[in-house]
Each structure stands twice: as C-alpha cells, then as structure tokens.
Design a protein that fits this description.
The protein is of the alpha+beta class. The chain is 26% helix and 29% strand.
Length: 496
C-alpha cells in the first residue's frame, strides 16, 4: 500500500480508486470482470463493516471487505469475505491504466483456471490437486498462458495442463505440458509421475492428437480432454488419422514459357548471389540470400520486394537487375550496416539458402538436388520454420527444419511436417506426382534433421525430443554463429 494512503479506511480507498479510474472493473478468480459504473456499483457502511455490491444483467456480486491488500496505480486489491466466512481476494482494476494492458487476458486466465480446477475434480475424483498455477516460471520455461496442475494420489502423480477457449495458441499446450511433466519428475523424486492430461477447447485438439500418436508411450502416457462450456470429454488420439495436407503434382517450370521468357530468366540468374527456386505449381522464385525479389505467375514475371509489379520488357528487366544488385550489396555477410531491414529480414530464409547451397556440409549422405521447399503444404498458421525435403543417395527421405532463432515449439512443429511427409510417402505420392525423378524412394520413415545456430536451440528442445517415438529418427545440427558468411556445423547430436 502506498504511504500516503496507509491510514485510509477500505471504504475511502475504494471510493478514491473508483473516482480516479476511467475504466474500472471488479475482477475475481473464476468469473468475468464486472464493469463498475455509478448505476451498477454501491458501497455500504455499517459501523466498521464495509460491503460492496456490483451487478449487471446476469450477475450480482456482494462481498464484505476486510482490508486493503495492495494499493497501486491502476489496481486495488481487497481481502474479502464471501458468504460462509470464506476469505478471498477481489481486485479493482482500471483497464485504461497503461500498467493494466494485459489485465483482461490475465482475468480470462484466472477465470479458466477455476474451470480447470473443477474439470480436474470431475475427471480425477480420487486425486488431490496438490498444485495449480497460472503464474509464469521463466526459469523452467513454463508459460502463464496455460494453467498447469500437479495431482497426487498416494505415491502416484499426474501432470495436467489446459488451454482456454480464447487461448492464443492451444497447440502449444502439449509443449508446455511435457516440459511441466519433466520438471515435476525432477522435483518430485519420490512420486511416480507416469502421465500427462491435456485439456483443450473443442475443435482445437486435432494437431495435439496427431502429435501424441508419435510420442513414446513408455516415456509419457498422454490423455486428452476436450471441453466446451462447463463439460469435457476424453478423446482417443489414435482416432485422429486424417491430415489436412496437400501434395500438388510437380510441374516443369520452363515447359510453357517462350524462348524470350527463358532468356529473361538467364539474365536474372546471372546476377551475383541470385538463387532460383522451382515451386511445385510450376512457378519460379528468384531471391538473394533467401529474400525474394521476383517470381513468375502464369505467363508473367513479377518483381518487387513488398509489392510485386509485372515486367513489361527491357526497361523493367534493368530495374529488376538493379534490385538484385542492391540486395546483394545490403544483404551480404560483409555488409557494413547490419541493422538495415534488408539485412535483418527473414533470417530463416537466409539460413535456408545457406543450407541448400551447402547441403553436403550438413549431411554428406544427402543428394545435393533436388531439394523441395514447403511440400507437402498444410494449414499451419505462422510457424516461423522453413521446411525442406531432401533425399539420401540410397533413396531415404529427409525432412530438414531450419530455424534461425530460439523456439520452444520447434520439435513439435517439426514433427507436424514430418508426419505429413510420412503420410504421403506411405501412399507412394511423391514418386507418382513427379518428385525426385529417377530416384527410387525407400519405404523407411523419413529422417528429421533440425538445423539452427548452435546457441539458438532453446534449452527445452532436447527435453521435448526425449518424448518422441523411436520411429522418429531425429538429429540436431548446430551451425556456427557466422553462418551468413560460412556455414559450419559445430555439433551434430542424435536424440538421446
């Protein structure tokens, strides 16, 4: 409590806070915020007793105030007494205060935390909730976005994690759940922690269930509950076998272009540091260190970085060559201005270009070409990972995931792509649709290769990989920090 308000009575402190706030609300764990207005809020004094009442069309809240717990700009925390004498905390928050920009989301998390507690009691009636938290734990990489719980019954334990209906990333719950399980196993050494329970909103469970099918059941028994409203149902991940994925036939990129058009390509490719990428749909992309500046679309050549324009002839070709020269100068490993947006933009794409150019330095068993990007395609939102598909000299596919910065979710997001490649491979679709011409592909599951700067692997990545099924053969490659200049593998580690 601030010194200047240290001797205020609770009633005076509440009145002062409400009158000074532009958007005051009442917040209590497990409930939606209640807006405070002159018509919906009342303070009642009876001797030393202070009661507050707040209401809307669907709810009426009455609490006895015992004391002020915290008084700071934009926030007043009250110790209150509910009916039956139970003591709790009620917060008055000014949502217009800059310090409270995240309070609406925090209130939503607290509300779901109480629903999560009730769901645990329903699904595990014989177990005791020994711990339940939405607080961040940065040291152990535990997010406040997902409430986590530790349940006990004698010497046995269960880890649990949940995602609310408005969770920004329900797919991320499994990553944090496995990290939470692993942390509890190291902390609770006398407890047998054999399982993880994941609670997800209805219609958001598909990705998590697909991932669970390729986890090691001996390492963790993962169960999934789907909730809607105040009810939840258990689902079986083994029932989720259909993927949202598409493998387009690979078209010859130069088959339908005139000789004049081909000569344009050759002029552009002759520019320093320009790389060509053939797409499955028959289009061709031109980039400098991964940053695209031109591509074909139908019978047109489009150029530009942020906005594409149609090339109409020699004048535009000279402009395209000028863009390529400028990109080669600004987007160079020896560039003097390393804060320039053209240098810092799309680091994953730059690292991908280096991997393509030096694939033999990553793994000498891989054929240098062909190498495909983003095939198969699937609806996955913004992943921040570059997907490559290569093949070994013996015909075994290799999924290569490229990431330039730390990402907790890298292992499971890489698994998403690997699963789909395996699915199409099992149906013979790569050879049947024109990929890897002349190379007999084996039926072995693809290898999964993760490539990132050596110091940019998140500490939890290795933890998550330990829970993968033995069917998923994973290796991590750490490249030197100077990868823009020279791609060198500093370490290569198979999954423990």
């Amino acid at each position: 409590m601030q010194a200047e308000h240290a001797y205020e009575s609770p009633a005076v402190a509440i009145e002062r806070f409400v009158s000074a706030s532009r958007q005051p609300v009442l917040m209590e764990a497990g409930e939606d915020p209640l807006p405070i207005t002159a018509e919906t809020f009342k303070i009642e004094r009876r001797g030393a007793t202070v009661r507050i009442e707040c209401w809307n069309d669907t709810r009426n809240l009455v609490r006895r105030v015992r004391s002020i717990k915290l008084d700071q700009p934009g926030r007043l925390e009250l110790e209150i007494e509910r009916f039956g004498g139970r003591v709790g905390t009620l917060s008055l928050v000014d949502l217009a205060n800059p310090h409270n920009r995240d309070q609406g989301r925090r209130g939503s998390r607290l509300k779901y935390r109480e629903r999560f507690r009730r769901a645990l009691a329903r699904q595990f009636p014989d177990w005791r909730v020994a711990e339940l938290s939405t607080e961040p734990d940065l040291h152990h990489s535990l997010s406040p976005s997902h409430p986590r719980a530790f349940l006990r019954k004698g010497s046995m334990g269960i880890a649990a994690i949940g995602a609310a209906e408005d969770a920004l990333d329900p797919d991320g719950a499994l990553s944090f759940g496995l990290i939470w399980l692993d942390y509890l196993r190291h902390r609770e050494t006398r407890i047998s922690l054999g399982g993880l329970a994941v609670f997800l909103p209805a219609s958001s469970e598909s990705t998590t269930c697909h991932r669970i099918r390729y986890l090691n059941e001996d390492a963790a028994r993962v169960s999934v509950f789907v909730h809607s409203g105040n009810d939840e149902d258990a689902v079986d991940p083994q029932d989720y076998t259909n993927f949202e994925t598409r493998l387009d036939p690979f078209a010859d990129p130069l088959a339908n272009f005139s000789s004049d058009f081909v000569s344009w390509f050759e002029r552009v490719l002759a520019m320093p540091d320009v790389q060509r990428r053939d797409r499955a749909d028959g289009s061709v992309s031109f980039a400098v260190h991964g940053l695209e500046f031109a591509r074909t679309s139908g019978n047109h050549l489009l150029f530009g970085i942020d906005h594409k324009h149609a090339c109409g002839g020699e004048r535009h070709l000279q402009e395209i060559e000028g863009i390529a020269r400028e990109l080669a100068r600004m987007r160079s490993a020896n560039a003097s201005d390393r804060m320039n947006p053209l240098y810092t933009r799309q680091p994953e794409a730059w690292l991908e270009a280096q991997v393509r150019a030096r694939l033999d330095s990553i793994d000498a068993s891989l054929a240098l070409r062909p190498v495909y990007g983003q095939v198969p395609q699937f609806a996955a939102g913004e992943r921040g990972i570059v997907d490559l598909l290569a093949v070994s000299m013996t015909g075994r596919l290799a999924v290569i995931e490229v990431k330039a910065t730390q990402d907790i979710h890298l292992p499971l997001q890489a698994l998403d792509y690997w699963m789909r490649v395996k699915w199409h491979l099992g149906r013979g679709e790569f050879s049947g649709r024109g990929y890897f011409p002349g190379i007999p592909l084996t039926a072995e599951p693809p290898r999964l290769l993760l490539v990132a700067p050596a110091l940019e692997y998140h500490p939890t990545n290795e933890i998550l990989l330990r829970y993968f099924s033995r069917e998923v053969e994973v290796e991590r490659f750490g490249v030197g920090l100077n990868w823009r200049h020279d791609l060198r593998v500093m370490f290569r580690r198979a999954r423990a």
